[in-house]
Amino acid sequence: EEGPSQDGPFFLPKIRVFNQKYVYMHVRVSEYLMSHTVLFWLTSTMLLLWALAYAGLVVFTFFIASTDHWATLVADGRIKQAYADYIHAIPVWIMWVTLLTAVTRLGGAVALLLQHQWALPLYALSLGCMVLLMFRAFVLADIASVIRPSQVMLEFAFLAISLFVVWFARLQIDVGRLG
Question: What's the whole-model pTM score?
């Protein structure tokens, strides 16, 4: 027989369960681990490094790399010519959305390290931008046809990390670490 309706974590709707402890055990364990002080600082520092690397990649790709650089990568077989053409044809508005993604991701990481609740909306905006960028790249521009499968997997790994940071920031607010 089912038990009473129980509230789940913020990302799950109310459900009817036989044993609340069993259903939420994994969620509670992960919440406990991710709210631990050492793991908070380690995770937050790694997220800052991730944000800095992404910001550096964006700046290099759109503002520093020359046509000769892309031609060298194609000649060395590191990227396909179609991918270099894709990069050169990226609309300006996508460059701005990509830059906004990098800035909000970096701002979220700094806010997280400063233990400020602004981390959540910054990371959420970064996630929204990332979804828009991926929709444009994979659905509208069919980038999967010009990049390697490993690059496709990397893009979806970035999306997974973006989802994680929103969850992580929300969890830190819930446990009272971010004020």
Answer: 0.77
